[in-house]
Design brief:
Rossmann fold, binds adenosine monophosphate, 38% helix, nine-stranded mixed β-sheet, six-stranded parallel β-sheet
């Protein structure tokens, strides 16, 4: 795991009339979770998970959220935001009451399930009921779970509204509402649903908003749902993560596929997400790759939920090494083994770039990640807007020629030990798997 580093950044209190900034470095002392004001049950749960040092967003956000006021938290992706909002939530829950006391909304089903899973780990031995309410899953089991007592709901807006409309989910006992990936939740696609849900919650609730990206107009909009919110901003004008080495690769529209194969052979990802812009593009690429490689899967919003779940499960357990995806897994998804992100299609919006590459080099992996963005000759302006957003120029990555790769394969073949069936599984799969698809 990456060690959490010193907190630098700022906290801003924005009341109606004034805005006040506090340097975060002066507020807390000590390196461990003990200094954050968490109770002994939270500390025991954290210890059992194995976290030793709070990440900067946890160090800055947790003490403020524990005070009960509204907060927005901005920090680079993969830096532990889930624990930053979930640990304070657990300290507010009255365990003698089975009613719903906190709701966390996320933009995708996969992210909701991940947050619910992480929350159950963070609950430790405390008997909190965390129920995931997402579309594509049987509503009946969610209804049963809520009726049985769901103190924390984690869900996607559509299904949550459905449960509200059926009068199964009652939000008048909510004390904390969280918008994870808040800028996405407040964009025009989700905003009406979010407003409907928040209107059902008591006005004296605590509202927490978290994201890696928070454009100023969204930040201003967010104030409509909050009161005297404190703002914890640890992005330090660098929204992309330092633990990801980023490159662009010049490609030809008609040769993208062979460029991808060359990149895979050359860089041998342990696990990679290959992002496409459209569902159909993802399907097409998957069909072509699946003919050449095993351990490939695809995920996008048009697939049956069972297929999406299977792809995620196999990607998480490592049996799938290449996941071809749309931006449905662009935000929040945390899979430790992801070593490479490949933007097969350059993202349409530059914030999507930041979220996509944040799927690697995460706090949990302890390793740097690699991110490659394919850029066709007419896509220079998109590359420039990404570079302006991350405030630096991306270096170019040069693919080796097919001849050079063939020469390397030949040399490797000559030095390979003679195989017998018993030894096949023992050899490192990486080089073999990728070198065998090299001939394109
Ligand atoms: P998140 O940004 O919440 O998705 O967290 C990213 C990853 O970091 C997850 O795998 C967490 O389990 C892990 N994580 C969160 N907090 C810590 C911490 N303080 N120390 C080490 N790992 C952490």
């Amino acid at each position: 795991m990456h060690q959490a580093s010193e907190v630098t950044g700022s906290v801003t209190e924005s009341g109606n009339a004034e805005t006040r900034t506090i340097e975060t470095g002066n507020v807390e002392t000590g390196n461990g979770f003990e200094s954050l004001g968490l109770n002994h049950e939270s500390l025991a749960a954290i210890q059992a998970i194995g976290y030793t040092t709070p990440s900067p967003i946890q160090r800055a956000f947790i003490p403020r959220a524990l005070l009960g006021g509204d907060c927005t938290g901005q920090a680079r992706t993969g830096t532990g935001k889930t624990a930053a909002f979930m640990l304070p939530i657990f300290e507010r829950i009255d365990r003698s009451r089975p009613d719903t006391q906190a709701i966390v909304l996320t933009p995708t089903r996969e992210l909701s399930e991940q947050v619910a899973h992480e929350s159950r780990r963070l609950a430790g031995k405390r008997p909190f009921e965390v129920v995931s309410c997402v579309g594509g899953k049987q509503i009946r089991s969610q209804i049963t779970a809520i009726k049985h007592g769901a103190q924390v709901i984690v869900g996607t807006p559509g299904r949550v509204l459905d449960l509200i409309n059926r009068r199964v989910l009652l939000l008048d006992t909510i004390s904390v509402a969280v918008l994870d990936e808040a800028d996405r939740m407040l964009d025009i696609g989700f905003r009406p649903d979010i407003e409907r849900i928040l209107k059902r919650c008591p006005t004296d609730r605590q509202t927490l908003l978290l994201s890696a990206t928070m454009p100023p107009p969204v930040e201003r909009l967010a104030q409509r749902y909050m009161r005297n919110a404190q703002r914890v901003d640890l992005s330090q004008d660098r929204v992309d993560v330092a633990t990801v080495h980023q490159f662009y690769v010049t490609v030809d529209h008609h040769r993208k596929f062979s460029s991808l194969i060359r990149l895979l052979v050359q860089t041998k990802p342990r696990q990679a997400i290959v992002f496409c812009r459209t569902k159909r593009g993802a399907d097409n690429l998957y069909q072509r790759l699946a003919g050449k490689l095993s351990q490939v899967s695809v995920i996008h919003g048009d697939l049956q939920q069972s297929a999406r779940d299977r792809a995620m499960r196999q990607f998480r357990d490592g049996s799938v090494r290449l996941l071809i995806a749309t931006d449905v897994v662009g935000r929040g998804i945390d899979v430790t083994g992801v070593s490479h992100i490949i933007n097969y299609d350059i993202p349409e919006f530059c914030d999507d770039y930041i979220h996509r590459i944040g799927r690697t080099g995460r706090l949990s992996s302890g390793d740097v990640g690699m991110a490659f963005t394919f850029v066709c000759r007419d896509e220079g302006p998109q590359l420039t807007s990404i570079e302006m957003r991350i405030n630096r120029l991306l270096p170019q990555y040069c693919l080796e020629t097919a001849e050079e790769l063939a020469r390397q394969r030949q040399a490797a073949a000559q030095t390979r030990p003679v195989e017998n069936p018993a030894s096949v599984n023992v050899r490192a799969p990486d080089d073999v798997a990728y070198s065998e698809v090299g001939a394109v």
